Structures are given as structure tokens and as C-alpha cells.
Amino acid sequence: MKKVIISLIMMFGIISSTSFAGTLVINTDTSDAAPKEAFEYIIKKFEEENPDVTVKWNVFDHEGYKQSIRNFLNTDPPDVANWYAGNRMLPFVRAGLFEDVSDIWKDSGWVDGNLSENMEHAKKSMTIGGKQWGIPYTYYQWGVYYRKDLFTANGISVPKTWDDFVAACATLKAAGITPITIGSKYLWTTAGVFDYLNLRTNGYEFHMDLTLGKVPYTDPKVQAVFDKWDELVKPGYFLENHAALSWQEALTPMVNGEAAMYVMGNFAVAPLKEAGLRDSNLGFFQFPEITPGIPMAEEAPTDTVHIPSKAKNKTDAKRFLIFMSRADVQEEINKILGQLPINKNSSVKKGDPFLKAGLNMLNNAYAMAQFYDRDAPAQMASEGMKGFQEYMSNPDRRQKILERLEKVRQKVYK
Amino acid sequence: MELNNSKAKRITWWQKNQVKISPWIFLAPGLIFFSIYVIAPIFVSIGISFYQWDGLSPSIYVGLQNYIELLDDEYFYISLWNNLKWLIFFMLAVPIGLGLAIFLNQIVFGIRLIKSLFFFPFVISQVVIGLIFTWFYQPNYGVIAPFLNFIGLEGFSILANENTATYGIIFAGLYPQIAYCLILYLTGLNNINPEQIEAGRMDGAKGFHLFWNIVLPQLRHATFLAIVVTVIGALRSFDMVAIMTQGGPYGYSNVLAYYMFEQALSEYGYRMGYGSAIATVLFTIMMFYILFFIYRMYRNEREDNN
């Protein structure tokens, strides 16, 4: 059924790309409910404001999009496509498939106020080779989601330092509760833990150097990260059998009260609440400090919109990108998404404690990492995450894994 | 006169060669499509394996670099080793299928229904089987969890353990494969010559002896087919791995077919050259097998004809 829909959509795409100027073709991967609703709303609003433009919108299956975008950027380019910031867009930029949109970022006349100023904190992740290649419209925080009631029952307060955090884990473990749940079947969840341990142990600059391939994986500073990780893995503070579970399946122990914490992105809140948790027993805290004095950088993956360089209607595409950068538009779109706007002048959905906490945290963040698989190149990311998963199951293989990752690094970044 | 002559000539040429040419005309559509969609891609793929290419940027010629890297790739050896495990244990489908076929080859009331039920696993999509077995294996709430608890392996996850994951997948893969072999043998058993069995009985053969010396030789064609199908099934075992573990935990249940996909086409892959190199290795292994079996088939048929 899905395939039929996709092929119908693709046929539709082929037909629509041949249509006249004034038609704006937008391809998105927003097949999930909330993102789809958000784009529906935003496209309607754009059409109302720009009556001379007709939008043709093609929704792709979220997973399938990662494959399709490689094809349609070459063969049947839309005028606007959504994607992700950081190294994730590097292959397309390098292959000349994304349009340079630095002029939108530079020219304050385009938008209400200066874009570079309003989105300063996100500019770095949109920049490759000194130019900007798209417009970010939403992001969300990562951190630790926890069961408030389990913390209270065991006399634990929200940990601010690493020692508190490890002590909390020990208390929970002694009480028969799995301290941290994780489902690593699809690997990327392990990278969330690694990123935070590295950001807190060595800081943002070192993390970036590592993901940019400037530092060997056998560096003592990386060893230090794994020393900290050892403190959680060796006593068995993570969920057993995590390699067999997807991230959603690993939510179950937390909902059942068998596990207390999850290092996760804010998208975990919706399924947790659907499963029955409430604001009263579900909480969020910032990943605790490890090395004192290191400024706190956070993990905040950013979603973006781009203009394919082979697009036919670049004028209207630019209008759409500018529209997407506006404070009021980002406010609306993120209200529907339940995520955070990039534009500093947007306000956040009221009454959502997780968004409030996230906004507060990110506004005070020293810097923002995109996530290991967006900051590091694809091959490094895939080998790295495989290594993290292996390490979490076999902490004694650390040295072997790091040496293997170093070998990969030398190949990937040469 | 002149015209007549040339016409006569043309007809003669056609008549002379008609018998030789007409099979090729009939084969032409098949041959053309086979060359375009099967033969040509093999060579193109081997060609790509000498390049470094992400599918978007221009490709760079790297010679044998991909193969050299392959020799130094831990995951490649794990995958190769797993392919070997698949080859060996997947073969169990042949004797088990034969056993079931003999068991079901009797005439009692309702046997047709029972036969079709045994054949059922082969009808279900592999994806569905993979998914269901994944649920079976779930550490805490899967169907086999009570059994694992009973033998003292509480919370043990077959698919999350690097030593058991591959066997878990092979076991799931056997489920439809046994049904396939069963069907091959059931049709084989239908074609057995009852007179030969009768003659054997008269000469005093019974039980295993009768089966081994009289029934099994007559099932030779079914056995041959079952083995070929199972070997190829084992070598291209992709869907089960993709559904059940995606090669995990950390690449320990990977097989060459899936590793190729992972490197060339998955979310973090797009190393077309490297993926093609893996494909070429897999192709070589398969080619050895296939050539060996074709040779045997050819020899057997010649013997039959003599």
C-alpha cells in the first residue's frame, strides 16, 4: 500500500514539475502525523499570503525519503526540499545539488530583522565552506527524561553533577529498578549517550574536532569519555538486552516503572504520554556536568529546508525559505510539531514543561551539536555507533573497538 | 527471369537456415532482456567495484583499493563466516523436509488439508516470518521466554547476543525453507515407481534399507533441486537479516548480501564501489557453487541418456 502511495506521489511529482511558473513544488519527508499537519498548515498560510503562487506538495515516506532525495535532486528536482543540518547535508552540497542561499542570511532587507542575528546560534550548522545552504525551521533538545515518582520514592533529587548521577543510578539499581533504559537495535541511541559524555567530559570544541576527524579515537581524552561510560556500563546501569530493542520498545520498561531514566530527544515525550505517563510523573533534566568548568553545550538536531540547485522556480522557492524563517511562522509550525523554533523572536507553546525546559536550556547553551550521525560523516557515524553498541555490551573490548574506529577515521577523513 | 532467380535464391536461404534460425528468433526477446537486466549489470557492478563513488559525486578510479580494504575489514570476515554458518545449517531443511514428506505421504482422511497446512509457511512472506520470530525471541514477553526462564536463562535475548543471533535468524529461515523442500519431495514421492518398491520388497529389503537403496535414488532429482534452492537461499539470505537484526548486534549477524546493502545503499552507506566489491566476492562464491551443480547436472543427464 505504502509503495503504491509513494509511486503515485512520484508520478504526481513528475507531472507537477512540468507545470508552469508560479507553481512551487515542495518535497518533504513529513509522513508522520504532527509534521504533516504542520506543513499542511504552513503551506496553506503561504498560499494565502502569496496568491500568485500555487504549491504542489509531495509527501514522502519518512524512511524512504532518505533514498528518494538522492534520486529526485538529480532527475526531478522540486523547488524546495526538507533535510537536516550539519554534515548530513554535506554530500548534497559537495555534489552541487543544493543552492547557496547565503544572500537570504546576509540581506536584512529580506526579512523582519536580520536573519543572521535572529538565528545566529544555528548559523554554524548551516554553513559549509563559508556559505549557507538552507534555512532551519525547527529543533528539539536532548537530555535525560526520568520518572519523577521513582526518584521521589527512592529519595533521589535531580542530579546536577556526575557523582550525583552515578549515585542516583546506584540507589535505583539497589531498589531493583533499571536506572537507564535504552534500545540500541538501530544503533543511534548509543550515540546520544556518547555525545553527551564527550560534550561534558571534553567540551564542545573537542567533540567537534573528533567528529570532524581531527583527533584520533585512541586519544587519552576519548579514553576519558569511556572511563566515565564504564562507570555506568560496568555496574549494569543500562537496560539489559538493549541491542534487541528499538528505541520505542525500550520505552516500555520506563512506562511500567521498571526503568527510571532515558537519555533521549524530546520526541520521546509524545509516545511516553500516549502510554499513560503525565507531567506529574515524567520529568526532564539537563545531562549533568562531568568536568567542572566546561561550558555546557547541548545536543539539538535541526530540521531544515533547502532549494535544489536544479530547481525551476527559484524565485518563489526563496520566498518560501524567507517565509519559513519568519518568527511568527516558526512559532506556528513548532506549536504543531511540539518542538522548538530557531528564530529567537518566536515564542513557545505555553503549558508544555518539556518545551519550556528545552528552550531555557538551549537559549543558555554554550553551543549546539547536531548529533553524532549528523556531525560525523556517514561512514564514520555508522562504524562509530556500531562500536558504541558493541562497547555497551562488552565494555572490556573498549581498546579493540577504539583502535578499529581509529582505523576507520584514517580512511574516512583522508 | 532475373527477379525470379533472386527470389528463388532468397527462399532457398531461408529454407536452408530456417531450422537453425527459428530457435534464436524465439529466444531473442528473452535473451535480449536477460542480457540487459542480468548479464550487463553484473559487469557494470564489477566495474564500479574499482571506483570510489557515493552515487552523487563523480566517481574516482581507485583500482583494487576496495578489495584491499575488504581484506582488512573485520565485518567482512564476520559476514563471510556467517554465510558459511547459513550454508551448513540451512542444509538441515533438506533432510527435515524429506522426513516430513515421507511422513505425510500416506493416504488417510484429511491428509490434503494437513499437507497444505505444512506447506503454509512457504506461502507467508519472509518479512512476516522474520517479524513474528523476532517477537518470539523477545527477552521478556516472547513465547519462548517461559522456556528460557525454565532452563535458567532468564531475560536472555537470542537476537541481542553476538553468539546466538545468527542461529536465531537461521532457525527462523528454516521454517519456510523446510516447507519448500517438503513440497519438492512430496512431488518426487508421487513419481516413484511402485513396481520397483514391490520388487525390492520381494527381494527382502525393508525399512531403512528399502528407503536408502530404492526410494532415495528415485528422489535424486528432487534432492538435487532442494539442495540447489537451499544453497542459493542461504547465500542470498537478506530479508530475514534485514527484518530481524539489521546485521546487529554490532554487525555480528551480518551476511555478505546484507553487508553489501549496508555499505552501498543504507542510510549511512552510499559507498557504491565498496558495496560492489562485496557483491563481486559474493557473486564469485555463488558462481563456484552454481557451476559445480550445473556441471553435475550435465554429467548426470548424459549418464541418463547413455
Annotation keywords:
heterodimer; A: 414 residues; alpha/beta; D-Maltodextrin-Binding Protein, domain 2; 2 domains; five-stranded mixed sheet; four-stranded mixed sheet; 13 strands; 49% helix; 14% strand; B: 306 residues; mainly alpha; MetI-like fold; 14 helices; 2 strands
Structure explained in plain terms:
The complex is a heterodimer of chains A (414) and B (306). Chain A has 414 residues and is an alpha/beta fold. Chain A folds into 2 domains: 2-139 and 303-362, 3-Layer(aba) Sandwich (D-Maltodextrin-Binding Protein, domain 2), CATH 3.40.190; 142-299 and 377-412, 3-Layer(aba) Sandwich (D-Maltodextrin-Binding Protein, domain 2). Chain A contains 20 helices and 13 strands. In chain A, the strands form 4 sheets. In chain A, strands 2-1-3-12-6 form a 5-stranded mixed beta sheet, with helices on both faces. Chain A has a 4-stranded mixed beta sheet with strand order 8-9-7-10. Chain A has a two-stranded antiparallel ribbon with strand order 4-5. In chain A, strand 1, helix 2 (33-49) and strand 2 (54-59) form a beta-alpha-beta unit. Chain A starts with a helix and ends with a helix. The model of chain A is unreliable at 11-20 (pLDDT under 50). By secondary structure, chain B is mostly helical. Chain B has 2 domains: 2-48, no CATH class; 65-305, MetI-like (MetI-like fold, Orthogonal Bundle), CATH 1.10.3720. Chain B has helices spanning 2-48, 65-71, 74-90, 93-104, 111-123, 126-136, 145-150, 165-190, 194-202, 207-218, 220-235, 239-244, 256-264, 272-305; strands spanning 51-52, 60-61. A two-stranded antiparallel sheet of chain B has the order 1-2. The chains are: A alpha/beta (414), B mainly alpha (306).
